[in-house]
Write a structure and sequence with these properties.
With 142 residues, the chain is of the alpha+beta class. The chain is 39% helix and 20% strand. It has 4 helices and 5 strands.
């Protein structure tokens, strides 16, 4: 069973074992995302799956997943903090039959912890602060 990660809108990260069978795996992703999975490619070895209609259905923005995508891309993907990956996000290896690489799993956890720490600090936080802390955390994880 390929290992993947699920990032919730509250910033928590859960390890998943996806089914080996491609059809069952697609059904599992659809159930986890509450809709048709749409792939996003922000890292050459990972795919970030989101609900294909999450923006129109006004799913809550996933700050941790979006910060991670920014860190992986090395730039702010939010178009001036107006676009965030919607809802729950599942991160898999680009080769759906393989586990997500251990170093990418570590990066996801480190970025998530850094963003959660910043958001719970009690101080006002700008999106630029989140992008900066996620990039720094990713570098430290590597």
């Amino acid at each position: 069973m390929p290992q993947a990660l699920q990032i919730e809108t509250d910033g928590s990260v859960e390890t998943l074992a996806l089914p080996d069978d491609r059809t069952t795996r697609d059904q599992s992703l659809k159930a986890r995302l509450s809709g048709t999975p749409d792939p996003g490619y922000y890292h050459r070895r990972a795919t970030m799956w989101v609900h294909d209609n999450g923006h129109r259905e006004q799913f809550q923005g996933n700050l941790v997943a979006t910060a991670l995508a920014c860190a992986w891309r090395g730039l702010d993907i939010t178009y001036d903090a107006t676009y965030f990956l919607p809802g729950r996000v599942v991160v898999t290896c680009n080769d759906a039959d393989l586990d997500l690489a251990p170093e990418l799993i570590a990066e996801v956890h480190v970025v998530a912890a850094a963003v959660r720490k910043l958001l719970t600090s009690g101080a006002p936080v700008a999106w630029g602060d989140i992008v900066a802390v996620s990039g720094t955390a990713r570098q430290q994880a590597g």
